[in-house]
Amino acid sequence: MGIKERRIREKEMRQQQIVTAAKQVFLHKGLKSATIEDIAIEAELGVATIYAYFKNKDELYASLNLITLEYLVDQVEIVYHNDSLSIEQKIIKFKDAMYNTFRFDPVLLRNIFRVELEETLTALSRELLEQINQLTRKILTMFANIFDEGVKQGIFLPRHKMLFVDIMWSTFAGLVIWEGAKTAINPKKDFFKSSLDEAFDIFLRGIKTGKATDKGKSK
Amino acid sequence: MGIKERRIREKEMRQQQIVTAAKQVFLHKGLKSATIEDIAIEAELGVATIYAYFKNKDELYASLNLITLEYLVDQVEIVYHNDSLSIEQKIIKFKDAMYNTFRFDPVLLRNIFRVELEETLTALSRELLEQINQLTRKILTMFANIFDEGVKQGIFLPRHKMLFVDIMWSTFAGLVIWEGAKTAINPKKDFFKSSLDEAFDIFLRGIKTGKATDKGKSK
Amino acid sequence: MGIKERRIREKEMRQQQIVTAAKQVFLHKGLKSATIEDIAIEAELGVATIYAYFKNKDELYASLNLITLEYLVDQVEIVYHNDSLSIEQKIIKFKDAMYNTFRFDPVLLRNIFRVELEETLTALSRELLEQINQLTRKILTMFANIFDEGVKQGIFLPRHKMLFVDIMWSTFAGLVIWEGAKTAINPKKDFFKSSLDEAFDIFLRGIKTGKATDKGKSK
Amino acid sequence: MGIKERRIREKEMRQQQIVTAAKQVFLHKGLKSATIEDIAIEAELGVATIYAYFKNKDELYASLNLITLEYLVDQVEIVYHNDSLSIEQKIIKFKDAMYNTFRFDPVLLRNIFRVELEETLTALSRELLEQINQLTRKILTMFANIFDEGVKQGIFLPRHKMLFVDIMWSTFAGLVIWEGAKTAINPKKDFFKSSLDEAFDIFLRGIKTGKATDKGKSK
DNA sequence: CATGAATGAGATTTCATTCAT
DNA sequence: AATGAATGAAATCTCATTCAT
């Protein structure tokens, strides 16, 4: 039984090894340009071994995303349901959750933002895209509800809740992608977290009415 | 002489025809997935004709971007040097210039944001990237100077000028890309311009100190 | 216009060249074992050229068959409707039509007889098989009608018409395939046609009642 | 000693298990398409276990055939040497022996008829084919002798003995293969045996002179 | 000039076979 | 003895680019 367990553990490790390599390669090359051989070399395995673990390139690509996105959904849900946090605190926590997730897996962000384009994806990954869409919608809905509450309480400007969501979400994504582009040109010390924090500060300043913020529960 | 001129005009038109088609196809499929045949069909020309006008695929891709980006630089420069505009008005005009440019040519934005990534590009397009970088830097420097002025005048929060540039630039890009992603999922009426305007409103609210704004010249 | 026509003619010739090569290769190796490279070499063309003319291996395989089978249907139909032939004469003519067809294209016979097996076939070739089935049924139905008539006229034994069809059809196919196997072992002078004729003689002797044959029209 | 015997018995059973599975899979997929994994799954064993019992795929394929064909040779020999049977009775018995053999193992028939083709086969399987040829020739020679006797006795038409053999053999094979094709299209009740019997009836009617048949011994 | 056709080079995918346990 | 995992080698298919007309 010890043997069987070790086998399973080894298999999982190998899978992880492939996933990690694939993230690297997909991040640097994109879905279409990354070759399975690239991934195999990065993972220090044979090409055929990759295929022993994942049915094809798309399927491999798929699994990377879902795992991470599900993790993000979990984090956001916990914050969303935490009644001891103020609205503003929740938004800050949302930002941190996104930060943790996308720093850890930038490929996912690229997918959510359809950076690898529709037409290039095959039947299989369409299914994946649908799943990604669904999870993304789940997250955005929670964001929207929080903003809505802020508007109702009068602490945020009276705008449609989805507007705030779009801006927050886009600003975040824009910063991550732009950060990637900048460091691609000129790799240097990482000021990203502080830029992100400042951006959210400014965003919150920008949407607040100035009315006394809620000190109490948000729900 | 009329004939010679017509020849030249026809040649330019043909070139424009190819550029337009190529933009379409690259936008929908990405650099790697778009085939020369796709472009030829879209342009209603033969494959070999494309090669009569552009040395190869990368070179074609390159020209698309530079043309548009140079146009953007021009627009930004005009605003930048227009002394009759207030700082805030300039920022608004910058936004509009970006809007016009990137709505017209979203592929460029993808390139500035390194969405088609480094490793995939061949020697020739590295050169292109360098040119893009240079032009981009030119634009961002002008942005930075304006923000700096605002900070010095005390109308903007005392932060590093590049922080504001990064946030503005990222927010803009994020919105464009996110808009593309959303309409890919659910094509509907286009509220993009108003979302963008609101986002900049909020951004400006967020960075202003509250001190009376400059009514006069910015330079 | 002369040029355009020549182009078309050349294209057709090239297509024919590929078809001919493919028949050869498929006959000797079978669908699964034959490689596109084999066919390309046989046709003295590049691999990619084959793909310029046929979407994929299955599609190529498909076209080979349908062309020939349709030709057989035509031949059989002409005989079938020729009122000046006696029943027995028609059967002889059917045999000759089959002989001409399958000598010319033995791969088809393999397909009709499901020699390349079901499970190995892809979606496209399933569709092909359906078309083959339909055409085959058309032929067999005509055969059946002729036998039926013979039975009704009392010149053939009173058996179910499909029995005769199956036996005639199988005997024919068996001889072709067996001939192929024998000459594979020991290529020698071709006695096939005479063997086939004798086999049909014996078959006809075997099914006739002995009653005076119809001297007149069969329809 | 009980243990050693059990070991041997178990080993033989395992071998049988593999052979049975392999027959199934080869029948349904053909030599080329069938994978060792398919066979392993069908046999409910591991892939590597197959290789513990058979040197490679071809060798496995080989043994399937020889075993059965040898069995057929035995059956035919018994009939052939049974002096109490008339010529016609012997032919009937030959048919039954073939029927039993090929119904039980259709893959063999495919091989005898070179349905899996020459060029695809490796050195080892060439050797196998040679063995198959030899055994087949043995059978056909016995058939030929019987027909020859019939001709000499004047009960069969004066034709070359190999002609009769070819026709009988082909008719039989044609029926088996055609039956397979038909049931692939339209699986239904199995009338095969009766069709086969009728076909042989007709064949015998066709080759007989009409002279009183031999009531006595054929040898 | 414009172009259809041909193709080399390279990517994905499959599978028989080996190997370590 | 039995096996799951790893992989080299080979097959299918794609596409940027060239060439002859």
UniProtKB/TrEMBL annotation, chains A, B, C, D:
- Supply the SUPFAM superfamilies for this chain: Homeodomain-like, Tetracyclin repressor-like, C-terminal domain
Q: Name one GO biological process term.
A: negative regulation of DNA-templated transcription
Gene Ontology MF terms: DNA binding; DNA-binding transcription factor activity
What keywords sit in the KW lines? Answer: DNA-binding
Domain HTH tetR-type residue range list: 12-72
Q: Which PROSITE patterns match?
A: HTH_TETR_1 (PS01081), HTH_TETR_2 (PS50977)
Q: Spell out the Pfam families in the cross-references.
A: TetR_C_5 (PF08360), TetR_N (PF00440)
Q: Which residues bind DNA?
A: 35-54
Q: Which residues cross the membrane?
A: none
**Which PANTHER family does the UniProt entry name for this protein?**
HTH-TYPE TRANSCRIPTIONAL REPRESSOR SCO4008 (PTHR30328:SF54), TRANSCRIPTIONAL REPRESSOR (PTHR30328)
Write down what this protein is called. TetR/AcrR family transcriptional regulator
Q: Which organism is it from?
A: Candidatus Desulfacyla euxinica
